[in-house]
Amino acid sequence: MSWARSFVALAATLMVTGCHPARTSPAAAPNRAAPAASPSHPAEITLAFAGDVHFADRTADLLADPPTAFGSISSTLSAADLAMVNLETAVTTRGAPEPKEFHFRAPATAYDAVKAAGVDVVSIANNHALDYGRTGLADTVAAARAAGMATVGAGADAAAAYTPWITEVRGTRIAVLGFSQVAELWSEWRATDTRAGIAMTREMPRAVAAVRAARRQASVVVVYVHWGTEGDDCPPAEARAFAGEMAEAGATMVVGTHAHLLLGDGWLGRTFVQYGLGNFLWWRDDAYSNDTGVLRVTLHGSAISKTELVPATISRSTGRPELAGGEDAARIRREYADLRACTGLAASPAP
């Protein structure tokens, strides 16, 4: 395709995915239980978060049968009222590779796989969504729309990238935003008023404004961030500073990925922060750690009443996450609890 025709196709797609009000979903998945609630007895709501998902090398073959791609871990995700992962790939067959070392892309059936696993929304604010340029990003967003999969953190311009996805679960409105803090190509990939791209933590005024705006529309605000240092199980100062800004802006919880291993969690005032969920459905076996898990957050109305990591390990043969049991589960829980020591987070919320 000529440059001119590529530009016209991209522009047409971006017009479709451009500036719009908060994306909304009228309710949680219809097959999930919805007991009645009252002001004095707010409904219990469960949220499930997991880490980075790739469909490449050993996990590419899983898309031959998308409904089974995630295997048995799907039951843990689908049991939640809202489940979320980071889809760390461009979903495209077009575009030219960007000037970077690693490039990932997957077919549109990637969205069929995450939907079948019970995932309701994915973040595409990461360091691979634009691996094949803005043509690839436009395809990624268009394929999500065609599949009925909600995405956050990237879009046709800044208005789209910083717009939350909003859903209502048993009377509680929940807003979800996605951001990336990865330094590689961040300035070139950032969304602007006139350019497609990613919502970036370094665009602090935009990020703070987005969270404050989401807070005016929903009583629960989830901030999902791609951050941290690969291979380091302690959050860097930049991540800790951003978490503080998000807490002050009104985030209910801040959840992170990117470092390829688990990081700790805890409380920053009354905001719950999870610094790193590690790899989840993962393409290679030598990325620091095969320990992973599903972060399960229980709400009563808009208040967090419980958080827990459901331990899992990544299969060396398939790349799928599988629930851990016995000694593995006990070890992961113990090591995960110890990770709080370097986060600066409290064990309980401020009164």
Structure description:
The structure is a single chain. By secondary structure, the chain is α/β, with parallel strands linked by helices. It has a single domain, classed as Purple Acid Phosphatase, chain A, domain 2 (4-Layer Sandwich), CATH 3.60.21.10. The chain is 26% helix and 27% strand. The chain has helices at 3-16, 74-78, 109-116, 133-147, 158-161, 186-189, 204-217, 237-249, 326-338, and strands spanning 23-25, 44-53, 82-87, 90-91, 105-106, 121-123, 150-152, 154-155, 165-169, 172-180, 197-198, 220-226, 253-257, 265-268, 271-274, 279-281, 291-300, 303-314, 321-323. The strands form 4 sheets. Strands 2, 3, 6, 7, 16, 17, 18 and 19 form an 8-stranded mixed sheet that branches. A hairpin with a 6-residue loop joins β18 (303-314) and β19 (321-323). α1 (3-16) crosses α4 (133-147). The longest helix is centred in the middle third of the chain and has 15 residues, at 133-147. It is globular, with a radius of gyration of 19 Å. 50% of the residues are buried. Residues 1-21 and 26-31 have low confidence and may be disordered.
